[in-house]
């Protein structure tokens, strides 16, 4: 008789470690949208942010805690009373909350970052965890840079955190340095040498600097970890974090080897991956395992022949298992609500009636411009249903004229305060001219870092998705938009960038006002 599989908790940190990577920042409504998708996906814990990092982070954690049901909502805090109390306040509305306290332990971090001796680290860990425990029954402790920490000292820190009340001990490979055998040995060492370790849940948190985050996380599971920290599409600091979809599908596909289970509804993996890619503006590489465009494509004749005989010859996962059910079914302007609803739901999206009606209207408008609508078109419509980042400016009119010698663009924008602003500019081409006209209309001048356009579906009249990345005040901002007219999608994407800049500036202003109004 085989034992029933142990449950491994999936702790998603897309909104914290993922969001903190360059170019991945999200607005509060975007974070809420991702958090709801994570709840539907069935993750056990959502790490919603780092409240001490900024007022915006605090408010986002609070909003997720208030509005998202199902998973435990977690917030990160450094090992000091102010951070911990702030995180506890942000989590107050959550039905189930977790405080995640971290402190660096490696010699490199002790010497160069913290300038602290081992004794001081032990004292701070004990005090921090104890304070968190007073505020929450569920406390996780992470010794940052654990994989480069002296084993004996790491064991001492972990034992101290357990004695102070931590119920989850997370072992981060902060800089993606470890390798599977070494990491498994670290887990075995801790399990053998730390008093009380049998009473806590061991967790793993890997970065992908050497491309081993998923392998290292899996090996930690073999060595006793029962929680994996990961992000959708593996987004995160530098090369990213352990990818949720890859680690979950590895555990499921090789269930007989790992003998563990997760609570993930794998059919939601593909739609969730597309949602996060669309919101963060980070494209999914074509060859990305599990959710990439080519993950289920078979090009070689020998492979195609094998697949025709039986899919198991060259396919270890089925596209439908991860929610990818592409078809060559084409919709057009005569397709009705019923056919459209079926397609939206087969693609893995769940819309409420109001959202469905809005997207259906857009579908009809698009079908008037474009004869055939493919899955990519429908995905783009749904993913953009909530209209990007929001913000004060709207494009009312765009007019461009291009000749060999250059181009001119005129834009009319409407501001949320009611003003209409019109501006014209010349440029090398119509896109360049439209960007300049928007800069002159809004008074916001940026440095364009990247501009790319990609077809979202097939055919001559395919829609183009434009992505624009700019630098403004030493920060990166991005915008994206989809249209059958690429000059229009580029212009809308650029305006989304300006809107993000204005939203960030408005957030900073309201923070300053609150601070100056606060009692001294
Ligand atoms: O990589 C890391 O060490 C972290 C910790 C805060 C868990 O993200
Ligand atoms: Zn990390």
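^ structure tokens above, recovered residues below v
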């Amino acid at each position: 008789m085989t034992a029933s599989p142990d449950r491994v908790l999936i702790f998603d940190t897309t909104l914290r470690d993922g969001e903190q990577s360059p170019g991945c920042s999200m607005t509060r409504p975007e974070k809420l949208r991702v958090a709801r998708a994570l709840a539907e996906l069935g993750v056990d814990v959502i790490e919603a942010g780092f409240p001490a990092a900024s007022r915006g982070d605090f408010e986002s954690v609070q909003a997720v805690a208030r509005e998202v049901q199902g998973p435990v909502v977690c917030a990160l805090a450094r090992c000091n009373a102010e951070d911990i109390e702030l995180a506890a306040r942000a989590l107050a509305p959550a039905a189930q909350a977790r405080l995640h306290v971290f402190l660096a332990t490696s010699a490199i971090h002790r010497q160069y970052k913290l300038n602290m001796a081992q004794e001081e680290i032990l004292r701070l860990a004990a005090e921090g965890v104890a304070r968190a425990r007073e505020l929450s029954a569920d406390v996780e402790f992470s010794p940052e840079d654990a994989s480069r920490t002296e084993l004996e000292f790491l064991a001492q820190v972990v034992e101290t955190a357990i004695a102070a009340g931590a119920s989850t001990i997370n072992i981060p490979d902060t800089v993606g340095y470890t390798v599977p055998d070494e990491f498994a040995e670290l887990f075995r060492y801790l399990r053998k040498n730390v008093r009380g370790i049998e009473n806590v849940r061991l967790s793993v948190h890997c970065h992908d600097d050497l491309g081993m985050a998923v392998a290292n996380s899996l090996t930690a599971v073999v060595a006793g970890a029962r929680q994996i920290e990961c992000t959708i599409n593996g987004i995160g600091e530098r090369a990213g974090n352990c990818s949720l979809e890859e680690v979950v599908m590895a555990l499921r596909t090789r269930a007989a080897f790992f003998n563990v289970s997760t609570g993930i509804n794998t059919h939601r993996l593909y739609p969730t991956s597309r949602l996060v890619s669309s919101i963060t503006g980070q494209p999914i590489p074509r060859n990305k395992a599990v959710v990439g465009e080519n993950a289920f494509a078979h090009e070689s004749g020998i492979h195609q022949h094998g697949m025709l005989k039986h899919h198991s010859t060259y396919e270890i996962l089925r596209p439908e298992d991860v929610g990818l059910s592409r078809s060559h079914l084409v919709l057009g302007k005569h397709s009705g609500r019923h056919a459209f609803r079926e397609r939206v739901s087969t693609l893995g999206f769940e819309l409420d009636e109001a959202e469905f009606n809005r997207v259906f209207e857009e579908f009809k408008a698009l079908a008037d411009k474009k004869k055939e609508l493919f899955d990519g078109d429908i995905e783009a419509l749904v993913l953009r249903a909530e209209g990007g980042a929001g913000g004060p400016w709207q494009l009312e009119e765009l007019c461009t004229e291009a000749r060999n010698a250059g181009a001119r663009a005129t834009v009319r924008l409407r501001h949320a305060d009611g003003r209409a602003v019109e501006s014209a500019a010349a440029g090398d081409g119509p896109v360049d001219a439209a960007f300049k006209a928007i800069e002159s209309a809004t008074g916001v001048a940026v440095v364009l870092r990247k501009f790319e356009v990609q077809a979202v579906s097939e055919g001559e009249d395919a829609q183009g998705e434009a992505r624009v990345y700019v630098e403004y005040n030493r920060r990166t901002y991005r915008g994206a938009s989809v249209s059958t007219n690429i000059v229009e999608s580029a212009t809308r994407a650029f305006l989304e960038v300006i809107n993000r800049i204005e939203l960030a500036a408005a957030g900073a202003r309201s923070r300053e006002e609150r601070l100056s109004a606060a009692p001294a």
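The pocket of zinc ion (ligand 2) is lined by residues 17, 172, 174, 205, 207, 237 (CB under 6 Å).
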